[in-house]
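Reopening: REF/SRPP-like protein still failing for me.
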Amino acid sequence: MASSQVDEVANKFNECAPQSAKNLVSKAQSIMKKASELAHELTAEARVKGPLAAISHAGTISKQVAVNQLVVVWYKANKHPIMHGLFEMAIPTAAHWSEKYNKLVKNLSKKGFTFMGYVPLVPVEEISVAYKQVEAAEGKSESDKE
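Support: Ran it again with your exact input. Result attached.
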């Protein structure tokens, strides 16, 4: 009975809702599906390899998502003249200090400070590669519009 009611509501929504609402629902469903798959994946990894492996895997995934979102925001903000000028000065400085930080963490870890192995590094190279990918993708989509 509940299933038929859900189907009925879904059909009415599909008939009456504007396309933007349908797109939003579709995107939300996609996100929920991916989140569910990820939860199952992490649970399975915790069972097989232990909770630390699952936490490490979750950290890796979180870093990938954060890098991708950071780069998209950076790219879009960089299109504005004022922000572009600011980024021209700030990015090289941030990259320089990030590299210094990464070297410090690695050196301390090598010298026996084992807890430094748990300190995250700044993914400078990954950010650079991701930015170039966003730039290339945006360039393709801009040329598609022409």
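The mean pLDDT is 85. If you still see a failure, please send the error message rather than a screenshot.
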